[in-house]
Write a structure and sequence with these properties.
Helix content of chain A: 40-55%
Strand content of chain A: 5-15%
Mean pLDDT of chain A: 89
Order of helices and strands of chain A: HHHEEHEHEHEHEH
Distance between the termini of chain A: 60 Å
Radius of gyration of chain A: 22 Å
Largest interface: A-B, 60 and 60 residues
Oligomer: homodimer
Number of strands of chain A: 6
CATH architecture of the largest domain in chain A: 3-Layer(aba) Sandwich
Shape of chain A: globular
CATH class of the largest domain in chain A: Alpha Beta
CATH topology of the largest domain in chain A: Dna Topoisomerase Vi A Subunit, Chain: A, domain 2
Number of helices of chain A: 8
Strand order of the largest sheet of chain A: 4-3-5-6
Structural class of chain A: alpha/beta
């Protein structure tokens, strides 16, 4: 792939292949696709990326990406500000919003503690969470991080930092996924779902 | 994925997910990656795409993408202009150039005849190939299209159109890939490699 007939295409391929999961072959395929299609497609893609990166804001309350100083969720009066769900990034927020089961607000950490990747507590939005919990009447903090060792480490770190506040600290339930069969569920998950069993009555609401 | 906290990010995701092979989840991952990284990365990607699409040229001789009116290969005096290799697109040219086995020039069809996709001979750069062969002293045309039914159809169409010219028409060899074992080679390929067997002497050059 050293013989590019065009510096312009080569530049585009170089830039595209810096994206995660996109190698040089895919990058070239994408560049050629943009060349084949209508000019507008490439121009509006390019402009959308530039626009996004140049004008993006982060919510001053929850660190969510936002076009305004305070994101639509934090600005929404119908959301319960006394319940804060702690998540890694915006994708988790979109996933939870799609369940339509949560009416509290969020706090975005921006990652999880992961010494292997050189990410410690200081690299995350932890300080601002603790201040927010101290200064406001926060009733509950729901830790909704990934269920890995790094996630558990971060949960524990947050728990230690927050346990002296008024807020109740909870973790999202771990157990069998809906639709799964016992036979095919891994032991750790199955074990956890037995330990964390819930009264059947809580189960039959609507 | 309806709850985007930012119109800017939503626009970027919409544009990214128009690219082939990139769904909305991947598009969001790419957009968030660009937001996390240095501003320059998103800006230079956006600008590279806009630049490429706005300033790209196509070689007036072979239809290759090019920054100039005539592409570097067609402009190269060392290349043998009397041998034309007919290919689908630039990726094929890059693949052949990487073999360092070809010193002729190329002609880029821009696709292959595929009625299923609504692509007929008129949608391809066939007219200009025939004119080029008629007007210049072209000795050989090498058909190097994909070895599928569509490729074979296009080969046959080109053969019919070109058989009355002076040029010899050949097709790239089909047979066992280097490093393959007979046992694992499909019957059609193996059959073809027996039919198209070559004298052993041609084999032992360098």
């Amino acid at each position: 792939m050293n013989t590019f007939p065009s510096k312009l295409v080569e530049d585009a391929v170089n830039e595209l292949s810096r994206l995660p999961g996109i190698g040089r072959k895919t990058a070239l395929r994408l560049a050629l696709h943009l060349l084949k299609k209508n000019k507008d497609i490439a121009l509006s893609l390019g402009n959308a990326l530039i626009n996004m990166r140049q004008n993006i804001n982060f919510c001053s309350v929850c660190h969510n990406i936002s076009d305004t100083d305070i994101c639509p969720i934090c600005a929404d009066n119908k959301r319960d500000k006394s319940t804060i769900c702690v998540i890694e990034d915006v994708r988790d927020m979109i996933a939870i919003e799609n369940t339509q089961q949560y009416m509290g607000v969020y706090h975005i950490l921006g990652g999880i503690i992961s010494p292997m990747d050189g990410i410690g507590p200081d690299n995350l939005n932890i300080e601002s969470l603790i201040n927010k919990v101290r200064e406001n009447k926060v009733k509950e903090i729901i830790l909704a991080l990934r269920t890995t060792i790094e996630g558990d480490t971060t949960n524990f770190y947050l728990y230690k930092k927050l346990k002296d506040t008024e807020a109740k600290i909870s973790v999202i339930a771990r157990g069998m996924a809906i639709g799964d069969e016992l036979e095919y569920t891994d032991e750790v998950t199955l074990g956890r779902s037995i330990l964390n069993r819930t009264p059947y009555e809580t189960f039959i609401v609507d």
